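2024-03-11 09:14:02 DEBUG pipeline.ingest accepted 1 chain
2024-03-11 09:14:02 DEBUG pipeline.ingest length=122
2024-03-11 09:14:03 DEBUG pipeline.predict start
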Amino acid sequence: MRIRYDPKLKQLSRELRSGSTLAEVLLWNQLKQRKMLGFQFARQKPIDRYIADFYCPKLRLVLEIGGDSHRSKFQQDLERQRRLECAGFRFLRFHDRDVKKDMANVLRQLKNWIEQHGKTTP
């Protein structure tokens, strides 16, 4: 299934990939090359009028990492999530601090979600 997105976001997503946060880099190292149960993830993926931190097409799963800077954007993040969920996307959110300090638990939560809600094979 092809995902529609605002073409203006393509360049911005490239810039975001090259300027990733530490938490994004750490999580990407655990997701790239199909390390998560064989599922392929993309990072800084344009979807609709937004850019998802990480996206798995087979699961239609968006992963978002939020930190203290997202506190002021709570309403915007919620609206974005609702809009994308209405379009059939699913969300998991992790706090920046948890990715940096407790990666094992983040990966366990993601794995459990995939086993419960996703397909068992990529």
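2024-03-11 09:14:41 DEBUG pipeline.report The chain has a mean pLDDT of 91.
2024-03-11 09:14:41 DEBUG pipeline.predict end
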